[in-house]
Design a protein that fits this description.
Strand order of the largest sheet: 5-4-1-6-11-8-12
Oligomer: single chain
Largest sheet: 7 strands, mixed
CATH architecture of the largest domain: Alpha-Beta Complex
Helix content: 25-40%
Shape: globular
Structural class: alpha/beta
Radius of gyration: 23 Å
C-alpha cells in the first residue's frame, strides 16, 4: 500500500517533530515505504521538509502540487492513476498512532470499496457523524449542520483505506468535469449513494485532528499521555440502568434518563487513566416491542451528550435485545429466544473483544445486579457490586457509590 496525505497545517510541531514527520514515522514503522503527497497551500515549504525527511527515512516520496484549488476529493481523483491498487489516505492535519491491520483488511480481505476509522466525538455539533450498522458497515453519513440528530455521536476520525478500482469511474468523470470537491462531505457520502461499500473501523489509538488552534493546543497538552496509552488496554464494563443512569423502571425515551451522581466525573477520570469504557446492558424492551433499536440508539446518544458536559466518553454500548418470556402485546417473536448475549451469558463481552484490543486480565465489571457479578465470575474479571451490601452477591468488591468504585479501581492499579 502507498499513503496519501494532504494539508498545509502539517508543518506544526509537537514535541520537536512536525505533524508531517509524525505521520511518516507512523506509517514507516508499519511497513509503508511509498508516499504520495497532494499539496496546495505552502507547497514549497512542505516540499523542502519532505526532501529532508526522505534523507532520514528509507522511503520513496512523490509529490503533486495543484495549480488551482481542487478540494481534498478533487486532488485525490485527479491523481488516482499514480497510486497503487490499495492505499491509505490521511489529511495533513491529523496526528495518528493507531492500529492499521483492520483498516487494511477491510479493503484487501473483506473486499470493501472504502474504509474509514471512527470514534465517539465530544464535539458532535461541528463534526460529520456516522451511522454504523451491526456489521461494521457505514449505513449513513450525517453531514453538519445536524442539530436534530439524536443518535450516537460517532465521528469520522480522518484516516482511510481505499481500493483504487472502486474510484476509477469517479476519477474519469472528474477529469472530464474537474469541479472542486471535498472528501469528507461530498465524495464519501456520494460513494454510499452510488452503492459502494464503506467499512467502519473503530479507532483504537490516537487519531486526532489538530486543524484548529484550540484542537492543536489540547492535543499538545495531552500528547505524552495519549502516546503512552497502549492499544491493548483494560476495560471497565459498566451496566447501564442503576449504574450510569438512575433506575426508573424500563427506560423507553431519552427524557427518562437521569445520570447517577458523580458518574460523569468518574468516567472522565477512567478515560484519562486509559480504560476502555464499555456499557453492557440487557434491553428486553426491544423484544417486547416497546422501544425500537433506533429508539435505543437515541437513548444512548442522549446519555453520551449528558456525559460530554463532564468531558466523559463512553467508547461503546453493547446490548442484548432478547428475552425468553413471551406474552407481551407488541413483542417481536424473533427476539423471544434463549441467547448467548443476555447477561450473565458472556456474548456481550465477546462482541466487545471482536472490536477492541482489551486486556481482560486487568479489566472490571461494575453493576448493580447479580447478573453483572455472575458474568464477571464466568469470564474471570474483577467485579464491583454497586449498591447496598448484599451477602448473596459474590463480588470481589462492594461499593455504595461510584466514587467508591473509582477508589477501588485506582487502589488496585497502585497495588499492581
Amino acid at each position: 500500500m502507498s499513503t496519501v496525505t494532504r494539508g498545509p497545517k502539517s508543518l506544526m510541531e509537537i514535541q520537536g517533530l512536525s505533524v508531517l514527520e509524525w505521520q511518516i514515522k507512523f506509517f514507516y514503522q508499519r511497513g509503508v515505504t511509498n508516499f504520495f503527497f497532494l499539496l496546495g497551500h505552502f507547497a514549497k515549504e512542505i516540499e523542502i521538509k519532505l526532501k529532508l525527511l526522505e534523507r532520514i527515512y528509507p522511503i520513496v516520496i512523490d509529490i503533486e502540487v495543484e495549480n488551482q484549488p481542487r478540494g481534498t476529493a478533487g486532488a485525490l481523483l485527479s491523481s488516482l492513476s499514480q497510486l497503487k491498487d490499495y492505499f491509505f489516505l490521511i489529511h495533513g492535519d491529523i496526528l495518528v498512532n493507531t492500529e492499521l491491520r483492520k483498516l487494511e483488511n477491510a479493503i484487501v480481505s473483506e473486499n470493501f470499496d472504502f474504509a474509514l476509522t471512527y470514534h465517539p466525538t465530544n464535539h458532535p455539533d461541528d463534526s460529520d457523524l456516522l451511522i454504523v450498522d451491526n456489521h461494521s458497515k457505514v449505513s449513513k453519513i450525517i453531514t453538519k449542520p445536524h442539530s436534530l440528530f439524536r443518535g450516537r455521536a460517532l465521528g469520522n476520525a480522518g484516516l482511510y483505506a481505499a481500493k483504487k478500482e472502486s474510484l476509477l469511474e469517479l476519477s474519469e468523470n472528474y477529469l472530464v468535469n474537474p469541479i472542486k470537491q471535498d472528501l469528507d462531505r461530498e465524495l464519501i457520502p456520494h460513494l454510499l449513494e452510488i452503492g459502494k461499500t464503506i467499512a467502519a473501523v473503530r479507532n483504537v489509538g490516537l487519531v486526532k485532528d489538530v486543524g484548529t488552534p484550540e484542537r492543536f493546543a489540547k492535543v499538545e497538552n495531552e500528547f505524552s499521555r495519549l502516546q503512552q496509552i497502549s492499544f491493548r488496554r483494560p476495560a471497565v464494563f459498566l451496566d447501564r440502568d442503576g449504574t450510569i443512569n438512575k433506575l426508573k423502571g424500563f427506560i423507553k425515551t431519552p427524557d427518562q434518563i437521569e445520570l447517577m451522581e458523580n458518574v460523569g466525573d468518574v468516567i472522565s477520570t477512567l478515560n484519562k487513566i486509559g480504560f476502555w469504557i464499555i456499557v453492557i446492558t440487557n434491553q428486553p424492551v426491544i423484544s417486547r416491542g416497546e422501544v425500537t433499536m433506533q429508539g435505543l440508539e437515541e437513548i444512548h446518544g442522549h446519555i453520551e451528550r449528558l456525559l460530554m458536559f463532564y468531558g466523559a466518553i463512553i467508547d461503546d454500548f453493547f446490548y442484548c435485545p432478547h428475552h425468553p418470556d413471551s406474552g407481551f402485546k407488541d413483542e417481536l417473536k424473533e427476539l423471544k429466544i434463549l441467547c448467548d448475549c443476555r447477561k450473565p451469558e458472556d456474548g456481550l463481552i465477546k462482541q466487545a473483544l471482536s472490536i477492541y484490543p482489551i486486556n481482560l486480565e486487568e479489566s472490571w465489571v461494575v453493576g448493580d445486579s447479580w447478573r453483572d457479578i455472575e458474568l464477571a465470575n464466568r469470564v474471570g474479571l474483577k467485579s464491583i457490586f454497586l449498591g447496598e451490601d448484599d451477602n448473596s452477591i459474590n463480588s470481589d468488591y462492594k461499593a455504595s457509590s461510584l466514587i467508591s468504585v473509582l477508589e477501588i479501581i485506582k487502589r488496585n492499579i497502585c497495588e499492581v
